[in-house]
Amino acid sequence: MNAEPLALWVEILISLFLLLGAAFVLIGAIGLFRLPDFFMRLHGPTKATTLGVGSLVVASLIYFSATREGLSLHELLISLFLFISAPVSAYMLAKAAVLQQLPLTPRTRGKPWEQ
């Protein structure tokens, strides 16, 4: 298959979104690993990783839209599902942790179950 090369600005844009997404995913993974308790760890995957995967999906959308005719809708559906399901699942995890009264580290401010 002889595919036409992409324009330089499209390749740069795709590369920027891939690097941005990889950086956010890395930050989220480090946060998940390094933070001391569940409530602090919840922020890594829900905030940074959602932005990271969103950036990777945008890069995929740009690439497949540039190499084919028309807009690639698969990535739009993935993004929609991601941005709807991530906050809902984080809320459910936090609610379950509050109900279980998971132990906190002294650096965590406030007691969520005493409110």
From TrEMBL:
Superkingdom of this protein's organism: Bacteria
One Pfam short name: PhaG_MnhG_YufB
Keyword Transmembrane (UniProt): yes
Keywords: Membrane, Transmembrane, Transmembrane helix
Record-level Gene Ontology MF annotations: sodium:proton antiporter activity
Transmembrane portions of the chain: 6-33, 45-64, 76-94
Record's protein name: Monovalent cation/H+ antiporter subunit G
UniProt source species: Pseudomonas tohonis
Source organism phylogeny: Bacteria, Pseudomonadati, Pseudomonadota, Gammaproteobacteria, Pseudomonadales
